[in-house]
Every structure is written in structure tokens, then in C-alpha cells.
Design brief:
Keywords: Signal. The chain contains 6 helices and 18 strands. The chain has 348 residues and is mainly beta. Among the domains are: 137 residues, Sandwich (Immunoglobulin-like); 99 residues, no CATH class. Strands 2, 4, 6, 7, 9, 10 and 11 form a 7-stranded mixed beta sheet that branches. It has a 5-stranded antiparallel beta sheet with strand order 12-16-14-15-13, covered by helices on one side. The protein has a 4-stranded antiparallel beta sheet with strand order 1-3-8-5, with no helix packed on it. The protein starts with a helix and ends in a 5-residue tail after the last strand.
């Protein structure tokens, strides 16, 4: 009894450091998936259906786990099921890029040895679907305190579906997918509504914030700071968040940011974004950074035109006339020594 008491006193006095709490470790999870029909057989576009099955296994107790099934463009869910009971009903989110995310939220593994849970989805393949369809999955945990994702396990081998087409039908009805274009008037676009990037984001500070101009000058230090930088007294809109992350994020485009629609908080993210469902957030993709948009258009127009034409015309014509004509009358006149009067040059 005496030894623990002495140890406690040493900790209080600061002589012996107190033990540091160990951070929560991620559980051991495995994800396996398969698709039917097989890639060799394929599925008929517009008429056929496919089935995807993903099995999630754990070797320990896990609380409040989430699973996401991401369907590519050209596939839409028909129905889903889970095992074991009770049945879980998913949340389906349609992304702006045409993909579809199916979420199963908040389930547990209560046994000491873990267990497994099976997710099944029946899919409809569109008439103009691409030839190869890749279905991915992700199991993740979210920290409810600060909304950070601290554990994520992707599906190691995605489920692949091959698409078959009826003869001459695809060529007659399906137009080729246009290449993506950049609109300078829309430098950032909505990437996921009611979702946020899984990757850790940096919260924009609200007190003592420093904004860096394109010349590296801190906000408010000199009068030469750009006017658009002075307007960011606070970050109140996604447009303010876009400008702040462009000037302070240090990421090359494209990059992403999360906007909390409830608390008006701005989170600057990196070049990758894995969407997870969160009704309080919207995720945005930055295509053209705030410092790069004004310098792209005026450069080629103003520098090429004024340098070529003004130099050719004035140098050629004025120099030829005054040099040749004044040289002839400079010959000295002849004098007649007898008369002491000058005579013309031709009489000498």
C-alpha cells in the first residue's frame, strides 16, 4: 500500500511524468467483393441487371461503423439488402458527376471476436453505360467530437462488370461523352451535396487570420495589398472559403474544400477527395485558383500587337531624301585672278 501512495505523490509533484493516454487504434477490418454476372459473360446494356455483394469482416468489437458503396456513371441501384438481421436501410446520394453513393450508417460488431456483415445491391445498367464498370466500397469510422475521419478501409479488389451492347443500337442512340471544359466564370463547383471529403481538412482560423497575397505580402501590412484580399474580414460564404483556401492552402488545382452549412466553417482540403455522407457539409472542387484566374486572359492580347507595326514605317522613308541632294552644291567656286570675281564651276 505504501508504494502506490509514494508513486502518486511523485506524479503530483512533477518528479515522475504521468502516463500518456494512448490514441484509439483503428480496428482490423477486411472488405471483399464480387459481381455477377462474371466479366466474361457481361451484362446487356439497357436490359440486363447486375448484382454486387460486399462482405465486411471484423476481428474485434466495433461501434458506430459506416459503409459506402460507390456506383459509377451508367449504373443505378434497384434494391439492396443486408445480413445478418435486423435489416438496414441505406441512404442513396446522387453526385453531380453522375455517380451514385449508397451508405449504410451506424452499425456495430458487438461480439468479442467481431463478426461479418454482408451488403447486397441489385443494379440496373443504363443503355449508354461504358464498357467497363468498376464498383468500389469503403468502411470508415467518424469521430463524433470533431467530425474527423480517423479510420478508413477501402475495398481492396473492386467489383468489375463488363457491358454488352445490342448490334448497332449504341452507335445510333448514344453520343460520345464530351471532354470536360473549364469555365473561368465558375472557378469552383459543387462536388458533393450533403457530403464532405474524408481526407483531413484544415479549419480556417477566425481570429488573427493572415491572408497571403500573390506577392507574399501579409494582409494589412502595406497599401499595395490587393483589394479582394482586404474584403475577407470573415469567411461567411463558400466564395470566401474558396478565396481563403486558394491564397493560403498551398495546393495546386484541382483541390477541394469542405463548407459547413450549419456553422459556416471552412475546411481547406488537398488534391484528393473521398466523399462521405454528412448532411451538415457540402464539398466543393476548385478548378481555377483565386490567384490564377485574373492573369490568364490579358497576357497574350496586349504584348503581341504593339511591337511589330510601329518600327517598320518611320525608319525607311525619312532617311533617304536629305542625305543625297545637299552634297552637290558644296564644291568651292573658281576665281578669275585677273578680274578678282568668282566664275561658275563649269568655266574653270
Amino acid at each position: 500500500m505504501r508504494l502506490p501512495f509514494v508513486s502518486a505523490c511523485l506524479v503530483v509533484l512533477g518528479i515522475v511524468p504521468a502516463p500518456i493516454a494512448v490514441a484509439q487504434e483503428c480496428p482490423t477490418l477486411t472488405l471483399t467483393g464480387k459481381a455477377r454476372p462474371s466479366p466474361k459473360r457481361g451484362v446487356l446494356a439497357g436490359k440486363g441487371h447486375a448484382r454486387v455483394t460486399v462482405t465486411l469482416r471484423s476481428k474485434e468489437v466495433v461501434d458506430d461503423l459506416n459503409f459506402k458503396l460507390l456506383l459509377p456513371v451508367g449504373v443505378s441501384p434497384v434494391r439492396s439488402s443486408t445480413r445478418p438481421k435486423p435489416r438496414m436501410y441505406p441512404e442513396v446520394v446522387k453526385n453531380p458527376d453522375g455517380s451514385t453513393a449508397v451508405f449504410w450508417l451506424g452499425f456495430d460488431f458487438v461480439k468479442a471476436k467481431g463478426g461479418k456483415r454482408v451488403f447486397k445491391a441489385k443494379l440496373k445498367v443504363d443503355e449508354c453505360a461504358p464498357e467497363t464498370l468498376t464498383v468500389t466500397g469503403l468502411a470508415y469510422l467518424v469521430n463524433a467530437t470533431d467530425l474527423t475521419t480517423y479510420c478508413a478501409t477501402p475495398l481492396a479488389s473492386p467489383a468489375v462488370l463488363n457491358v454488352r451492347y445490342s448490334k448497332a443500337k449504341k452507335a445510333a442512340t448514344c453520343a460520345p461523352t464530351p471532354a470536360p471544359t473549364v469555365n473561368p466564370a465558375q472557378p469552383f463547383v459543387l462536388f458533393g451535396e450533403g457530403q464532405r471529403c474524408l481526407e483531413a481538412g484544415r479549419l480556417a482560423p477566425f481570429d488573427g487570420r493572415r491572408l497571403l497575397s500573390s506577392f507574399g505580402v501579409e494582409r494589412g501590412d502595406t497599401d499595395s495589398t490587393h483589394a479582394e484580399h482586404r474584403q475577407l474580414q470573415s469567411i461567411a460564404t463558400p466564395s470566401d472559403c474558396y478565396t481563403y483556401c486558394s491564397l493560403n492552402g498551398g495546393e495546386s488545382t484541382p483541390f477541394f474544400f469542405n463548407w459547413n452549412t450549419v456553422t459556416s466553417q471552412c475546411f481547406c482540403c488537398e488534391n484528393q477527395c473521398t466523399l462521405i455522407i454528412d448532411p451538415a457539409f457540402n464539398a466543393y472542387e476548385v478548378i481555377v485558383a483565386a490567384t490564377g484566374a485574373p492573369t490568364a486572359v490579358p497576357t497574350p492580347v496586349s504584348s503581341a500587337a504593339p511591337t511589330a507595326s510601329p518600327t517598320a514605317a518611320p525608319t525607311e522613308s525619312p532617311t533617304a531624301t536629305p542625305v543625297v541632294l545637299p552634297t552637290q552644291p558644296l564644291t568651292a567656286p573658281c576665281y578669275n585672278h585677273d578680274a578678282h570675281v568668282p566664275t561658275h564651276a563649269f568655266s574653270c
